[in-house]
Amino acid sequence: EKITPEAFYQQLGQAGGPSLVAFARWVLDNAPAHGLSVTWGKVGPLLKFAHEKHAHLPFMFGQLDRSGVLSQRQSAVLSRCEDLHVPVEIIRDYMKAVAALIPGACVKTFSMASGDVKELIVAGKDAGPIDWPPLAPLALHKEEWFAAIDQAIARIRQVIDARPSPRM
């Protein structure tokens, strides 16, 4: 079940007030100009970038969660780097740049019960893998956040575009 935009904005407003709703609207309005597509998920909109040569393998740059946090499936974006032979440092640099914009946030590595390892942006003392960073401080640095996304996308493009095109 995907959340509707109306339900998302209502729940986000309850969690964080009108300024957070205005931030979310700004993000969604500006996403296409930064090469991002928006897909609605269960808890809110996901920000995706897909290189034209690999449209079916998008990079996720986070999800605006109706509870007022930036949720992430960074293990998916890191495995996407492996799938497309893109250096994981590109995404790690992006995560560090975003964490630097949010007081109390950092990038941590977690070993999951499944044996997977996840690198995530988390916030709070002794943060665990679901202690995602709040959107409110990120809203104060929205331009810098999009600049970090732009830089990551440019680096991904540079790697993929440098490869010879497959022959038909």
Layout of strands and helices, then pairs:
Layout: H1 5-16, H2 18-30, E1 37-40, E2 45-49, E3 59-64, E4 70-71, H3 74-84, H4 89-101, E5 105-111, E6 117-123, H5 135-139, H6 142-161
Antiparallel strand pairs: 1-2, 2-3, 3-4, 5-6
Helix pairs in contact: 1-2, 4-6
User: Which class do the helix and strand fractions yield?
Assistant: alpha+beta
Query: Number of helical runs?
Result: 6
Taking Cα atoms only, what radius of gyration do you get, to the nearest Å? 16 Å
Side by side, the strands of the main sheet go 1-2-3-4
Outline type: globular
Q: Helix share of residues?
A: 40-55%
Report the β-strand fraction as a percent range: 15-25%
Give the number of DSSP strands: 6
Spatial gap, N to C terminus? 40 Å
Task: Give the overall average pLDDT.
Answer: 93
- How do the helices and strands follow one another from N- to C-terminus? HHEEEEHHEEHH
Q: Uncertain runs with pLDDT below 50, 5 residues or more?
A: none
Largest sheet: 4 strands, antiparallel
